[in-house]
Amino acid sequence: MRLGITNDHRGYKLKVELLEKLKKDYEVIDYGAKGTENVDYPDYAFKLGEAIVNKKIDFGIAICGSGIGISIACNKVKGIRAARVLSIEDVLETRNDNDANIICLNEKMSVDDAYNLIITFITTPFSIEERHIRRVNKIKEYEANNER
User: How high is the pLDDT of residue 146?
Assistant: First the structure.
């Protein structure tokens, strides 16, 4: 499994800590800012989203101050379903119900909490229930028929 990770300046520290843990078991490609100097999160969100769409990676991890801004930017890339999560319950629902492909985190969480959310995210399958498949397909159809 290939993972991509990205961050803005506020998410840099958590990204570095996560990379150390994730690289033990996964191939991880870093699309994020290389330090704490002020940068614009959309630039890094778009790189991560495009890597998923172009099948360079299987799942993405995005980190910014709150996790909200970077999730909004990720979701502007056609084919991306990014979700800002704070709990295991959030992760289970967004993977099972929404087939999310990017997990968005805030810089304030501990590396252990973030790691546990990520592992749950990448190991939780999308539902086989018709209602969830139908809903995700509606999103895909809308994207296919509406240019932004």
Answer: 87
pLDDT at site 136: 96
Domain boundaries, position 29: 2-145
Question: What's the CA gap between 65 and 69, in Å, rounded?
Answer: 8
Rounded to two decimals, the pTM is 0.96
Residues with pLDDT less than 50, the chain: none
C-beta of residue 47 within 8 angstroms of C-beta of residue 31 = yes
Edge-first strand listing for the sheet containing 82-84:
27-30, 2-7, 59-64, 102-106, 82-84
Quote the number of domains for the chain. 1
Residue among 22, 56, 125, 91 at smallest CA distance from 82: 91
